[in-house]
Write a structure and sequence with these properties.
- It comes from Mesorhizobium mediterraneum.
- By secondary structure, this protein is mainly α.
- It has helices at about 20-30, 35-40, 40-55, 60-75, 80-90, 95-105, 110-125, 130-140, 145-170.
- The protein is globular and about 50 Å long.
- The mean pLDDT is about 95.
């Protein structure tokens, strides 16, 4: 049961959020619950859309961005984000099931992408306190400083959406994928 109400429609959202939600609808064809939830704060919605839009113009390819999102969602135990990014990974980034399983475990079947996902997972688990060897490994895999900053920013954005969805208990509006239970 959601703990923070999600506006049922664009028209039910605060007036200042409506143009942004219409833009999401135009881009995606639908307005996922996360966007409507965040629209409770027009400032938060503007910030989320601004950062997401800026990072989409970055140098990390879409499949790598989805891989990072899957790893971070698994680490943070966010079934909403895991469900959303499994759907996006499969349908937009064209990741196969084996790849997404690897991503959820903090890796990848692609050697270069594996370095980015491993680095992102380390950042998420250790709250940014990484070692020199972690930075060296991602550089050796071919990532430059700009891409490293983008990896950190993607982790931060995904941690934020994970936390928002967990705090609110957002109703999942994608095919449901549950986080693994810790052993």
């Amino acid at each position: 049961m959601p703990r923070i109400p999600t506006p049922a429609s664009i028209e039910a959202a605060p007036a200042a959020s409506r143009p942004m939600l219409h833009a999401v609808e135009k881009q995606l064809g639908v307005v996922p619950n996360l966007f409507r939830l965040v629209s409770n704060s027009p400032a938060a919605l503007e910030g989320y859309l601004g950062l997401s839009g800026a990072l989409a113009k970055g140098r990390l390819p879409a499949p790598t961005r989805e891989r990072i999102a899957l790893a971070v969602a698994e680490i943070n135990g966010c079934s909403y984000c895991l469900s959303a990014h499994t759907y996006l990974g499969k349908n937009l980034a064209k990741l196969d099931d084996a790849e997404m399983v690897a991503n959820r475990a903090g890796g990848s079947n692609d050697p270069k992408a594996a370095a980015a996902v491993l680095f992102a997972a380390k950042i998420a688990r250790d709250r940014g306190h990484i070692g020199d060897e972690d930075l060296s490994a991602v550089r050796l895999a071919g990532y430059d400083d700009a891409q490293i900053i983008e990896i950190v920013q993607h982790v931060a954005l995904n941690v934020w959406t994970n936390y928002v969805n967990e705090v609110a208990r957002t109703e999942i509006d994608f095919p449901v994928v549950s986080v693994r239970k810790a052993a």
